[in-house]
Amino acid sequence: MLRSAIPILASLNAEETIKFYTEKLGFTFHSNWDGYLIFSREAIQIHLWPTTDEEIPKNTGCYVNVTEVDHLYAEYEPKGVVHPNGKLESKPWEMRQFSILDNNGNIIHFGEDISADK
Known about the structure:
Elements: E1 8-11, H1 14-24, E2 28-33, E3 36-41, E4 44-50, H2 55-58, E5 61-65, H3 69-76, E6 89-90, E7 95-101, E8 107-113
């Protein structure tokens, strides 16, 4: 019955967040309702809500399941958004993944299921 979930992360500055998600991550910007932002890229949506508390985004994030994670990493790595401790690697939980920090401090993990590769 469940079909999808949409992460709702924290945004400290709407203008900077719009610029980051569109220019650095390649998302399409859809709406800004009093600082509540909606983005999409392919089948993924990400929403962000406004806050002035800088600690909130440092403690939030999401995991995005992808295909062709190596290609996505090759797109994001030169843009300087990959987390210093989140380089692309295959994990023991059978995911090949990397992590980015957005302009607010939210962490986003991008991972591809590699369990069938065994």
